[in-house]
Write the structure tokens for this entry.
Amino acid sequence: MLPKVNFYILSSQSEQGRHNFACKLAEKAFRLGFKCTILVDNLEQAERLDRLLWTFRANSFVPHVIVQNELPSTNNAVIISTQQALEGWQHTLINLSTKLPGSIEQSKQIFELLDNDEAQKQSGRERYRQYQTLGININTHKI
């Protein structure tokens, strides 16, 4: 079964805005009991997101871990990865990377977060076309 794909186009033009929105989505997925992976392009982005997940909201707690290829030591955490989502953590996929996630057929829902940066929008358009080619129905939301 193909995943539900939602593109969120934020009015801001900052990585910080996309990361904050990703934190809110990850928190919601965690509270609903869904296994969640946040994909990023590099370790530097992963570390920034790691710090932000501790501080993005005063009363929030989202257990999370940065992983590469190994399974996390806990079943109760959001994964931040520069690779594809690990087996078992594909239910909710939040894509902050510039590429199409791998193994998307294993995900139930994919969130693509874009801002008003032209490079971001261009890579988002490419992923949008790739999802369409795969026959996936896409919803777009302007925030």
The longest helix spans residues 15-31.
